Amino acid sequence: MKRKDSFMLGSFNICSAHFQEKRYTDKNLRLIAGKIRESGADVVALQEVDRGAERSKGVDMPDRLSEMSGLHHHYFIKIRDFEGGEYGTAILSRFPIHEAATLQYPVKVATQGTSCGYVVLDVNGWLVTVFNTHLSVESEDANTETLDCLRDILRKRLEEHPEGFACCGDFNTLPDKVEEHIPFAAPVQHDLITYADRSAIDNILCAGEVRAEDVHVFDTQYDNSSDHHMLLAQIYRA
Fold it and tell me: CA–CA separation, 119 vs 99, rounded Å?
């Protein structure tokens, strides 16, 4: 029997709908929306998202994907200005968004900058926090710097809200390093391949009373919709 206070959460790097033809196409964006619907996700955290950028024909990806996927609540998390628009991450949700915020990382090594953001969702009366981030791929030092920035934000959130959170992301590093730097949040997976055919760099961290089960990968590479698979987990309250 499905719990009332549970939902299927996905983490999905969409390659800005550029992967299929190595440039933005509306067809690729529609394909990504179809993958989100097929996955059964109630909430999905997206990485590599454009909003109003020239390279993506000015499209508002969070708005379009929200409409096409049927996840009608959405929040965009800016990383930086990009080509006349913005580049970042986003969260789409079947459930209403009770609160949302974007937090920029105070980086010095990661010159491209990055951020995290969160939404507080009302899941049938359960107010649950879901974070989303995309850590630096520039160098090992830059990745570590952004990982530590995320750690500080998540630690503060947990201190203020001990009920916990789920944190999705393309961490651009393996789960062992994430665990070492963020020991108070447990990765839902250690060996599921999510990027190309070689790496488990996409993950979901759970802390506090937030737990995960039915962790699996949804194939989003076979038809070149993205260079990442979608990672999915059933999130529930312990």
Answer: 6
3-state secondary structure of 53: coil
Sheet with 186-187, strands from edge to edge, namely 97-104, 115-123, 126-134, 164-170, 202-208, 186-187
Cα 194 to the chain's mean position, in Å? Answer: 13
* pTM for the whole structure: 0.97
Tell me how far apart the alpha carbons of residues 157 and 9 are, in angstroms, rounded to a whole number: 20
Tens of pLDDT, residue by residue over 45-93, are 999 999 999 999 999 999 999 999 999 999 999 999 999 999 999 999 9
Q: Which amino acid is at 219?
A: D
Instruction: Measure Cα distances from 83 to 51, 52, 56, 89 in Å.
Output: 10, 8, 9, 16
Closest CA to 25 of 75, 76, 64: 64
Q: How many whole angstroms separate alpha carbon 182 and alpha carbon 171?
A: 12
Residues 130, 57: Cα–Cα separation, whole Å: 29
